[in-house]
Amino acid sequence: MHCPYCRHADSRVIDSRVTDDGTAIRRRRSCQQCNRRFTTVETVTVSVVKRNGVSEPFSRDKVLVGVRKACQGRPVSEDDLALLGQQVEEAVRATGAAEIASHEIGLAVLEPLRALDEVAYLRFASVYRAFEDLADFEAEIALLRAERDLSSVERSRDPSSVERSRDPEAVEPRSSVERSRDHEPPQTPVAAELRAAAPAPTRAAGRKSSGAGDLSVPERAPARPATDNSP
């Protein structure tokens, strides 16, 4: 590259840095004749083919011209537009094509613009999708509403309950009675048989029923005869 000061054809690279999220390389050069320094930027060239067949280099600023018109009167900032332009350029370069039609660039704008502002999206889509009458607008609005309703239903779902229903090993909560049984000692088969064969408790011996309900009085022992020890 020729030096912009003395037009000498030889220069030396003294520094290189990646810029614009990896889409360009910034090089600092030094002229071998006048020793003055200048900066160059290297980018991958993507040509845009217009409808009349004329091709020109891709320009992010030209893409934003049409988007900015569609966003007039909408709450869209310049930072939002700059981010949208970057997303469109990344999508265009990701195709790997050296030439791309201008109509395809317009279609690449639709997806990020719809996420940014739906009204601006309808304005822009009416041009690049060639809406002819109100039926085209109504069909596009119905599609936007259906997608919004679907996304709201998905957000309303509880992810923890969905995962619990899908888990085959999920354990249902137990009652307090069932939890109290965990503290009882385990019963062996022999202990169960002994408990089943044990006789029912009976009334204590030495008691007889008084005939009034379940009340009972104890029997008195017979009195011993007194002995006379006198002479």
Write the layout of secondary structure elements.
Layout: E1 11-19, E2 24-31, E3 37-43, E4 47-49, E5 55-57, H1 60-70, H2 78-94, E6 99-101, H3 102-116, H4 118-128, H5 134-156, H6 159-166, H7 176-180, H8 189-197, E7 207-209, E8 216-218
Parallel strand pairs: 4-6
Antiparallel strand pairs: 1-2, 2-3, 4-5, 7-8
Helix pairs in contact: 1-2, 2-3, 3-4
Measure the end-to-end span. 160 Å
- Name the quaternary structure: single chain
Number of distinct beta strands: 8
Helix percent reads 40-55%
Biggest β-sheet: strands ordered side by side in the sheet? 1-2-3
Strand content: 15-25%
Cα shape: extended
Radius of gyration (CA) equals: 47 Å
Number of helices: 8
Pattern of helices and strands: EEEEEHHEHHHHHHEE
- Catalogue the unreliable spans: 204-217
Mean pLDDT: 75
**Largest sheet at a glance?**
3 strands, antiparallel
The class by helix and strand makeup works out as: alpha+beta
Tell me what you see in this structure.
By secondary structure, this protein is α+β, with helices and mostly antiparallel strands. It has eight helices and eight strands; from the N terminus they run βββββααβααααααββ. The chain has helices at about 60-70, 80-95, 100-115, 120-130, 135-155, 160-165, 175-180, 190-195, and strands at about 10-20, 25-30, 35-45, 45-50, 55, 100, 205-210, 215-220. The chain has a three-stranded antiparallel sheet, with no helix packed on it. A three-stranded mixed sheet has the order 5-4-6. A hairpin with a 5-residue loop joins strand 4 and strand 5 (about 55). Helix 1 (about 60-70) packs across helix 2 (about 80-95). It is extended and about 95 Å long. Residues about 205-215 have low confidence and may be disordered.
